[in-house]
Every structure is written in C-alpha cells, then in structure tokens.
Amino acid sequence: MRRYKMATFKCEKCGTTKEGRCKPKTCPRCGETGCMMKDEAAAAPAKKCGGGCKAKK
After folding, report:
1. Closest CA to 20 of 38, 40, 34, 2
2. From CA 12, how far away is CA 27, in angstroms rounded?
3. CA 43 to CA 55: how far, in whole Å?
C-alpha cells in the first residue's frame, strides 16, 4: 500500500485550513468556491540526512 504525503490547503477568504491529498473545491467552513490554496507555510521542511542512515545518495 502506498502512503501519500498530505498537503495543507488554506482558504483565502476565512483562513480555515484542511489537510488532504487533493485540493478541496469549496471551503468546509465558509462554503466559498475556488478559494482553497496550498499553504506552503504549513508544509514541514524536509529533514536532511545526517549521515547516520543507510539512504542511497
């Protein structure tokens, strides 16, 4: 089973945030259509490898 990273979307009108894989068509709080935008500030920064893992480089 594949696991997808959830994105955070924020309403430009009322500021409500919602997590999901797909962009919502309407805001769950105010009902405005087309106002949900991806919230880049809420995205967690990627962790850098400290060299202790066995990840391929």
Report:
1. 38
2. 9
3. 23
For tokens 């490898």, name the residue.
49
Please tell me the number of Cα atoms within 13 Å of 7 on its side-chain side.
11
Which two structure tokens, joined as six digits, stand for 50? Answer: 């400290």
- Token pair 């979307």 is at which residue? 9
pLDDT band of residue 42 (cuts 50, 70, 90) is confident
Alpha-carbon distance 13 to 32, whole Å?
A: 8
Is the whole-model pTM more than 0.85?
A: no
What is the layout of strands, in order, in the sheet containing 7-11?
A: 17-20, 7-11, 36-38
Helix (H) or strand (E) holding 50: none
What phi and psi, each to the nearest 5 degrees, are found at residue 40? -70, -30
